[in-house]
Design a protein that fits this description.
about 230 residues, alpha+beta, Glutamine Phosphoribosylpyrophosphate, subunit 1, domain 1, 8 helices, about 25% strand, globular
């Protein structure tokens, strides 16, 4: 009998050094990954909780970041508070870009993480270490891209490197800037190719990110279709 439930997951937390934006891209083997594993707050930081995930840890982590704790200290505090921490996989970026990750000893292989300034890659039950390496390398190469595109390319690189042996079911990408709401929040659920489907949605939505950022401040802007057509004529 299998003890407990684990979701095969690969994810990336990223911060844009130039803008201070934070975001997460993620894919997993169960539905609704975007509702459980992504925790991001503008001007605060980002946390991903996966494997035998406990969403409460994400909320706890953001509160600790708001209190001024660094990313490594946040994960230390979470680990000390959770009796099942060896079943978890956690990643954290703080407002300065300092990164930390923790892959519990009970995570199933391949499981591990990659960490550098402004980036955390975490993966469990994936095809191999090459999945995490590909995601990390793709993010580092994309420094000139918008954060949302950079995150998605990294997720695609992980999928191309083997992803999860049994495939994925859901995916998501979430990016914040300065407002209390998301700049980008796209999700795919119960789909045979959720990373490819996320790209399809992103190709339609990403060109409109500036529009949806502008419209709350200027309700007189034209429709999305008219605005996009005008941008393409320029």
């Amino acid at each position: 009998m299998t003890v407990g439930i684990e979701f095969t997951t690969f994810s990336l937390i990223g911060r844009c050094e130039r803008t201070g934006m934070f975001g997460i891209a993620i894919a997993t083997s169960e539905m609704a990954v975007g509702s459980r594993c992504i925790h991001v707050a503008p001007g605060v930081g980002a946390i991903v909780t996966q494997a035998s995930t406990n969403p409460r840890l994400g909320h706890l982590g953001l509160n600790l970041l708001r209190a001024g704790h660094s990313a490594p200290r946040v994960l230390e505090e979470i680990a000390a508070s959770d009796q099942f921490v060896e079943r978890r996989q956690l990643g954290c970026l703080d407002v300065t870009g300092l990164a930390a990750a923790r892959t519990g000893s009970a995570n199933r292989p391949w499981a591990g993480h990659r960490v550098d300034r402004n980036v955390v890659v975490a993966a469990n039950m994936v095809a191999g270490a090459g999945v995490a390496d590909a995601m990390f390398d793709a993010f580092q190469r994309g420094a000139g891209l918008a954060l949302w595109e950079r995150l998605l390319r990294s997720l695609e690189a992980g999928k191309a490197a083997g992803g999860q042996p049994n495939g994925e079911v859901s995916s998501g990408i979430y990016v914040v800037d300065r407002e209390p709401y998301a700049l980008v929040d796209l999700r795919v659920d119960l789909h045979p190719e959720p990373v490819a489907e996320l790209r399809r949605l992103a190709d339609a939505y990403f060109p409109l990110v500036p529009y949806y950022n502008l419209r709350p401040r200027d309700p007189n802007v034209p429709s999305a279709a008219e605005w996009l057509a005008a941008q393409r004529r320029q």
